[in-house]
Amino acid sequence: MGDFELMAVKRIVANVAVDSTQKVASFYKDILGLELLMDLGWIRTYGANREMPVQISIAEEGGSGTPVPNLSIEVDDLDDILAKVRSHEIDIEYGPVDEPWGVTRIFIRDPCGNLINILQHT
Fold first, then answer.
1. How does DSSP assign 7-54, residue by residue?
2. Out of 22, 64, 94, 118, which could bridge 107 as a Cys pair, Cβ 3.0 to 4.6 Å?
3. Which CA distances in Å does 17 have to 24, 110, 118?
4. What domains are defined for the chain?
5. Phi, psi of 103 (to 5 degrees)
6. Do 73 and 109 touch, CB atoms closer than 8 A?
7. pTM of the model
8. Residues 119 and 73 sit within 8 Å (Cβ to Cβ)
């Protein structure tokens, strides 16, 4: 084989299909504390301007017999997220559960129905 320069993945962006970017704005901003980084109307990108590991998970199930979530979001204070979820009267579909692989997590849905796994390493 010839000399090949190794390509590096710089970023992975999760694209979540919704019927209205406006409808989910409060959820991703207020519940999860993400900043609006880009707004073209038809697409809005929320995030945090800090370095994070590049990861992609390929799954047959969501663990403990749960469905595979659309997104998994790790937070540093799950209790804070739980308080926000409860104050906004968002249904918790699973959890909070201490899983045997070292995370505590909940499953909730964003306003467009996407299943979100919110977790904190224990």
1. P-----------S-HHHHHHIIIIIT--EEEEE-SS-EEEE-SS----
2. 94
3. 11, 11, 18
4. 21-48+65-121 (3.10.180.10)
5. -130, 155
6. no
7. 0.90
8. yes
